[in-house]
Write a structure and sequence with these properties.
Layout (H helix, E strand, L loop, with lengths): L5 H23 L8 H33 L16 H10 L9 E3 L8 E4 L2 H12 L9 E3 L9 E6 L30 E6 L2 E10 H4 L2 H26 L16 E3 L9 H9 L8 E4 L4 H5 L21 E2 L2 E5 L12 E4 L4 E5 L4 E5 L8 E14 L5 E2 L6 E2 L2 E4 L1
Parallel strand pairs: 3-12, 7-17, 8-10
Antiparallel strand pairs: 1-2, 2-13, 4-5, 6-14, 8-11, 9-10, 11-17, 12-14, 13-14, 15-16
Length: 406
Amino acid sequence: MPRKDIMKLKRERNEHVLKMRAMITTAENRSDKKFTDDETRQYNELQIELDRRDEEIKREERLQAAELETTSDHDVSDPETNYRSFGEFLVELRTHLDGSDRLIQRAVTASSGPSMAFVVPDQYDTQIRQIGAQAAIVRPRAFVIPAGDPPDAKFNMTVLDQSGDKGVFSGVVVKWIGENQDRTDAGDPKIQLQGVEPQEVQAYIDISDKLLLNAPASEAFVKTLLGAAISAAEDREFYKGNGVKKPRGIVGHDSAIKVKRTTVSSVKYDDVVNMLANFLFGGSPVWVASQSILPNLMKMEDSEGHLVWQNSAREGMPSTLAGFPVLFNQRSPRVGSNGDLALVDFKYYAIKDGSSLAMFMDPYTQKKNGLTRIYASWNVDGQPMLKSPLLTENGIDKISPFVTLE
């Protein structure tokens, strides 16, 4: 039986989505904002077909990936697949574009670029990620879930539902009662399933053919550049991603509390105080700050006109604000935008790793320039572990491990 065209299946799926969205828009433009009986039937039929098509796409992707994996009798941990260096692995890729006994194939599903790549040996995958982690803000402090088996399967975490008026203890009721008095059943604690599903990410870099065949030189260049690129791509989405085929960041998330700034396009001492008042303490908070707010911090004054962050130009910049570390983030929004300053406890942010790093080389696209294009792909997802801010025990105030200045 021939393979199914996954991209065609996805296009057909998207057509169903567009039809469903159009039906909703049409209904919302009416005064009663409701479907007719016939529209309800049509919408339900489209939903059934959409679910069926999603399952068909997932099934075909898994099958095609399995078919590729069965083309090699070598296991990733087979000693014969070991390389003396990452540079030697790159040379192997360049000189064996269609694969070799030492290269392990893996399917990739990106809409552009290659549909097949070769798994980077575990030791080099780890080294590359460690290079990037030195500059990363979110991953070293987050709750990281290993890839598991299968690595890209959706992972459902069971968490307490602390949304709405359920409060910090998720609806648990505590009552003081005397001896022999009736015990009131308050019901079970409320729980939710929080799902994270690794999404595929793809990057590419161009490197000269001469440098590529020099194993020690290409190793240093590609490792450093690729490690920094992976770190930047992940950090950007973990912090402010919109969650559409990518991680959902903390900025703008429903669980984040947005504190309205006291002065437009500026950061003042009162803003810092107000952010602290809305924060969930008890963990390891850090300030994540755009470098564009640095002039505001250095000139920040209290109500009596005293400098509160840097008292003297002779000294170096302080590393903390209100006792918590300050991390300057190039990927934060500019001063005046939501998230230019955030107070965060990243242990409430979950990262789910998926399939490890895989690479593919394209010597044709930039051949006239003497360059080879190296594609790299990996799978990852991330999102806050809360769905909303927490209601404190006084039943009025709300707090969150994610507080951003709006």
